[in-house]
Amino acid sequence: MANIPRLTEREVIYILGLHDGGLKPLEIAIRFGRDKSTITCVLQNYSWETFTGLHSRPGLPRHTSERDDRMLVRAALANRTTVLADITNSMALTISPRTVQRRLKENGIQKHIAVVKPFLTPKHVERRLQWALEYQHWTVEGWMKVIWSDESSVEIGRDTKPRWVFRRNDERLLFFKFI
Is 115 helix (H, G, I), strand (E, B) or coil? Predict the structure, then answer.
């Protein structure tokens, strides 16, 4: 099935004008290289007088304005580890956390698990650099003789559950959970 592009606003106006001029939907469809059902749908859903759609969007009316949406985005980005309910309660809006989530997603912001980054002290960094410099000249054959073992750590008293942060997709490495 071919991917047919949507009709532009100009094409819709042209279709409405041709129909008002007396052409039948099938004749218009042949001229545009579209299905008759597409043309019929345009004629049913658009007004010739205003060149706008006759039907409003489905669903309940929007409970937030553009200004409210900007405030929600600012609140999420100001404290990226907060939960949706806290953002809802801090605003003077009577909206649900799900509405907050939808508005943030519309603006490209979602909750993601923070990237885990080990906490390295300056001493750790120095020791890693010394180790890398010491073994930088090893050959593949030398490394084949090394036995690597998996390690697992058990930490008591630390928060081990994942940390969620609000971020845009291109901000992945800006917000870490240090271990």
Answer: strand
Q: Does the 66-109 domain belong in CATH 1.10.10?
A: yes
Average pLDDT for runs of 10 along the chain of length 179: 67 87 91 88 80 64 89 91 88 87 92 80 90 92 84 66 83 65
How far is Cα 57 from Cα 4, in angstroms, rounded to an integer? 23
Q: Where in the chain is the domain with CATH 1.10.10?
A: 1-55, 66-109
- CA dihedral 87→88→91→94, nearest 10 degrees, is 170
Give the residues across from 166 on adjacent strands.
111
pTM of the predicted structure, to 2 decimals: 0.50
SS3 9: helix
Could you tell me which residues come within 8 angstroms of residue 115 by beta carbon, excluding any fewer than 6 positions away?
172, 173, 175, 176, 177
CA distances from 24 to 30, 36, 41, 50, 171 (A): 10, 10, 13, 21, 53
In the CATH scheme, what is the code of domain 1-55?
1.10.10
Are 80 and 167 contacting, i.e. CB atoms less than 8 angstroms apart? yes
Between CA 58 and CA 62 the distance in angstroms is 11
